[in-house]
C-alpha cells in the first residue's frame, strides 16, 4: 500500500507541478497558435493525454486558468480562450459602462431589461433612501452581458416621490437609466456610498448569471446622492466573481448605508401598475 501511494501523485509539490504542466501547456498553446478569445481549446481528456497527467491535475490546471480569466469553461460545451478579467471601478458614478475597462478599452456591454416593479421596500433600503418604508418605489432589474455572456445582474430602487414615471420602452432598448434620470428629473449622482462583499449566489443569481455549483459572486450595494446630499437611488450589482477585478480610489465617509442580509433588501410588489401611470406619493 505504501509503494502504491508513492507511485501515485504523492507529495503536494509533485501534484502542483503536474497541474502546472497543464497550466503552462494551455498558455503556450494559446500563444503558439495565436488563439483569440472565444476560440475552442482541447478537451480535458485531450489535455490529459498531451501533458501526461491525470484528469484531476487537468481540472486543477483549468480551474487556475479560469480563475485568472484566461479560459472559460461551459459544461457540456467545452473550454474556450477567455477574454481576461474586466477591471471595474465601483467608485466611479454614473453609467455602469463608464466604470468598466478590459485594460485597453471599454468592453462591449449589452443590457437586457428583466422587469420593472412598483412596491414598498424593506427597512434597510428605506433607511438608505431616507424615506418611510410604506412609500412606493420603483425596482428596475437589468442583466448586463459582456461579450454575449451574462456578467452583471443589477437592481435599482428609486422612490416615486423623486421619479414619478419611467419610460419602459427607453429602458428596454438598453439605454442608460442614469441618463434618463438626469434628463427627465435633473438627478445626477454627485457622490455614492457603497458596500462590497463576496457572497454565495442566490438561486435567482445562479440561474440568470449562468453560474456553476461552486461559483461565487461579488455584490456591490450602494446609494446615489444628488448635489444637495439627498439620496435618490439604492442599487445592487451582482458580478460573476471570477471575471472582474475591482479597483477603487478615494472616497467620502458616510453613514447611511448599513450592511445587511440579502433578505433585508427586498421590494414587496403592489398590484399591477404600469411604469407611466404609477401612483405618486408626496413626501
UniProtKB/TrEMBL annotation:
Keyword check for DNA-binding: yes
Database matches in PROSITE patterns: HTH_GNTR
Domain of life: Bacteria
InterPro entries, sorted: Bact_HTH_transcr_reg (IPR050679), Chorismate_lyase_/UTRA_dom_sf (IPR028978), Tscrpt_reg_HTH_GntR (IPR000524), UTRA (IPR011663), WH-like_DNA-bd_sf (IPR036388), WH_DNA-bd_sf (IPR036390)
Pfam family, one: UTRA
Taxonomic lineage from the root: Bacteria, Bacillati, Actinomycetota, Actinomycetes, Jatrophihabitantales
Sequence ranges assigned to domain HTH gntR-type in this UniProt record: 16-84
Listed name of the protein: GntR family transcriptional regulator
Keyword annotations from UniProtKB, A to Z: DNA-binding, Transcription, Transcription regulation
Native species: Jatrophihabitans cynanchi
Amino acid at each position: 500500500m505504501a509503494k502504491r501511494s508513492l507511485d501515485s501523485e504523492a507529495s503536494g509539490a509533485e501534484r502542483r507541478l503536474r497541474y502546472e504542466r497543464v497550466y503552462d501547456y494551455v498558455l503556450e498553446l494559446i500563444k503558439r497558435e495565436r488563439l483569440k478569445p472565444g476560440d475552442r481549446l482541447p478537451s480535458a481528456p485531450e489535455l490529459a493525454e498531451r501533458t501526461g497527467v491525470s484528469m484531476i491535475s487537468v481540472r486543477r490546471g483549468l480551474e487556475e486558468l479560469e480563475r485568472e480569466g484566461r479560459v472559460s469553461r461551459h459544461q457540456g460545451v467545452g473550454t474556450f480562450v477567455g477574454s481576461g478579467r474586466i477591471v471595474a471601478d465601483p467608485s466611479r458614478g454614473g453609467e455602469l459602462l463608464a466604470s468598466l475597462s478590459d485594460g485597453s478599452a471599454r468592453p462591449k456591454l449589452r443590457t437586457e431589461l428583466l422587469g420593472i416593479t412598483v412596491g414598498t421596500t424593506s427597512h434597510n433600503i428605506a433607511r438608505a433612501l431616507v424615506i418611510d418604508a410604506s412609500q412606493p418605489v420603483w425596482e428596475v432589474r437589468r442583466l448586463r452581458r459582456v461579450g454575449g455572456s451574462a456578467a452583471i445582474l443589477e437592481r435599482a430602487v428609486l422612490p416615486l416621490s423623486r421619479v414619478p414615471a419611467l419610460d419602459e420602452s427607453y429602458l428596454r432598448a438598453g439605454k442608460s437609466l442614469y441618463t434618463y434620470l438626469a434628463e427627465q428629473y435633473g438627478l445626477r449622482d454627485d457622490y455614492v456610498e457603497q458596500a462590497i462583499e463576496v457572497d454565495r449566489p442566490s438561486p435567482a443569481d445562479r440561474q440568470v448569471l449562468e453560474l456553476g455549483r461552486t461559483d461565487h459572486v461579488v455584490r456591490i450595494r450602494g446609494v446615489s446622492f444628488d448635489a444637495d446630499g439627498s439620496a435618490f437611488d439604492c442599487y445592487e450589482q451582482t458580478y460573476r466573481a471570477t471575471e472582474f477585478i475591482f479597483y477603487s480610489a478615494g472616497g467620502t465617509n458616510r453613514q447611511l448605508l448599513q450592511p445587511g442580509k440579502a433578505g433585508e433588501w427586498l421590494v414587496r410588489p403592489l398590484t399591477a401598475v404600469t411604469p407611466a401611470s404609477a401612483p405618486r406619493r408626496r413626501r
